[in-house]
Design a protein that fits this description.
Layout (H helix, E strand, L loop, with lengths): L7 E3 L5 E3 L1 E6 L4 H11 L3 E7 L12 E4 L4 H10 L4 E5 L14 H5 L1 H7 L4 H14 L3 E2 L2 H4 L8 E2 L7 H16 L8 E5 L2 E5 L5 H13 L11 E4 L13 E2 L1 H9 L4 E5 L4 E2 L2 H11 L2 E5 L2
Parallel strand pairs: 3-4, 3-6, 4-5, 6-7, 11-13, 12-14, 13-15
Antiparallel strand pairs: 1-2, 8-15, 9-10, 9-11
Amino acid sequence: MTWARDASAPDAAGKARIRPLAILAGGGDFPLAVARAAQADGRDPLLIGIVGAADARIEAFPHLWLRLGEVGKLFRALKERGVVEIAIVGAMTRPELADLRLDWGALKRLAGIASLFRGGDNRLLTGVARFFENEGVAVVGVHEIAPQLLARKGALGALTPSAEAEADARQGAALVEALSPFDAGQAAVVGHGRVLAIEAAEGTDAMLARVAELRGAKRLRFKGRAGVLVKAPKHGQDLRLDMPAVGLKTIEWAKRAELEGIALAAGRVLIADPQGFARAADEAGLFVFGLEP
């Protein structure tokens, strides 16, 4: 099955009809940034807020609140509005199957839902995409809707990395790539050629907090700022579903960890507000660099 990707299509009378876009919204600023970008592109976004994750600010747009497990309610809403494309955006804690409050629509699809939880995050997310597509709804990536939110190559702010810092960044990117078969995290910290931290289930901010704790306890004995946070997708990762992302909290924690800067895989990491992110990095004394493969 294929879906057209035009922003609009003619109706039976030949008039242009704006096609709606659903945004399954987790936490943070990204669902809002993507909704604004979709509107600017002539789309009609419907934000579906996950209760306990999404920000109340989604109510500035046409919206629907949904508990995890309300699958029947979700697909009824999409059908009523003629939605055939959905983007999955924002932070969400991975649930367990037993935590879901299944409605009748979910119970009818229970075998398929249960199969999603047998494996790591990549398996879960790719299974979710197939689940939507089997219902006639295409999953689209944020990079398709709002390419302006992608990290560009080169220096994003006023500061640039030293040759040693760029070497650390490339080592970190190679590390994330090498760990891809294990479905681990999307980030690492490398300083002076030494791996200082690897992201796992705790997330990037918690990983940086560990580095800050090690610096504070003098277990990492560097003079001044040292180390680079590297953020990149895993090899073979479906960027429609789980593209790495950074925000202002990333800047805050990188500063607390006394890092020299941040390296992002160019074209493969999202920034909710690229200009604001670069300004915050400048103010924190951190370089931000878009790293080419």
